[in-house]
Structure prediction request, 341 residues.
Amino acid sequence: MDAAARSTSSALDDALFEQGERFAYFQAVRLLRRRARLAGDDPERLRVRPRLALGFPESDIDQIERDLPRRHADIDDDAPEPAPTPRITANFFGLYGVSSPLPSFYTEDLIEEEREGRSGMREFLDILHYTLYPLLFESWVKYRPHVRVVEEGDTAMLERLYAFVGLHERSMRRDDTPGVSDMLRYAGLFSQRPHSALGLKTLLADAFAPADVHIVNCVESWLPIPDDQRLTLGDGRHALGVECYLGQESRDANNHVRIELRGLPLALFEALQPGRREYERLRFFTRYYLTEPFDVTVLLELRAGLAENARTGGMQWNALGRDTWLAPRANAVPRPVSFAI
Prediction:
C-alpha cells in the first residue's frame, strides 16, 4: 500500500511540475502545500510571481518549478542542503504582466531588462508578490471550511463548526461515543428550529442508508398515573374526566415516537441490534436530535428473502426475538423486531 501511495504521489509530482499549466491555480497551491507537509517542510516556502509577458494566457498558471534557482554566491558549501522552494509563475494578479493594474510601460521596462540579462527590478517587485499571492490564497480559503479544517488543520474553525450542533466543548466530543464524528454532516438539520419528524427522518435515512425510514408520531401508549393524582376518597379530586381517572393507567398519544427502518440488508439489520455499534449511533442521533424526553421505540424489518433457518452454535440466526422466527415462510418479509431506546 505504501509503495502504491508513493507511486501515485510521484506521478502527481511529475504532472505538477511538467504540466503545471493544466492545473487550476488554487488546486496547484493546495497540492504543493500538501506535498510540503508530507515531506516535513514548511508549506509557506511556496513562492508565486506573475508571468512577465503581455500576451493573453490560456490558463491560470504558466509553469511550476521544483526549486528556486540560486546564485552561486548564495550557496555555502558547509551549510546543509536547504529545503526546496517551489515557485509558481501565474498568469493573473500581479504588478506586471497582462493583468497588471499599472501602466503597460512598467512591464515593457521589465521585459527589456530581462533581455539585457538583468532582473533586479523584477526581483524587487517579486518581494511584494511573495506576500500578495499568499494573502490571495488565505482569502480564498477563508470561506471554505473543509479546506481549512482538513488540509490546513485549523482547529479554531473546527470548534466553530461543532458549535452549530452544540458540541463546542472538547469534553463533549468523546472519541468513543458512536456518532460524534458524523455530527458535522448534519449541522444544518440540528441548527433548524423547531426540530421536526421530517428532520429526524432525513438524518436517519442518510446515516443508515439504504434503510427505508418512517417516523410515526403520536403513538398511543398507556402511562401509569402517579399515586398523588389517583382518585382518593376525601381528597376532593372527584370530578370524573376532569381531575380524576378510573384505574392506574391513562392513555396518552403525546409522548411516544416510533422509528421504523424497513427493507434492511442483512449486515445493517445485524448492526442495528441492541448492543451493536450502529445501535449506539442510532440511539445517540435520536436522543440528541429530540429536544423533548419522548419515549422512542425502534422497529427493524429485514428485507424479504434474507432470513435463514435457525442454527444452534452459530454466530447468527439463533437469537429468539431478534433474528430467529418460528416457522418462517420462504421469501416472506420477517416479522419486525421492536425495542425501546
Remarks:
- The longest helix spans residues 120-142.
- The radius of gyration is 33 Å.
- The CA atoms of residues 305 and 329 lie 9 Å apart.
- The chain has four domains: 2-144, 154-191, 195-218+254-341, 226-250.
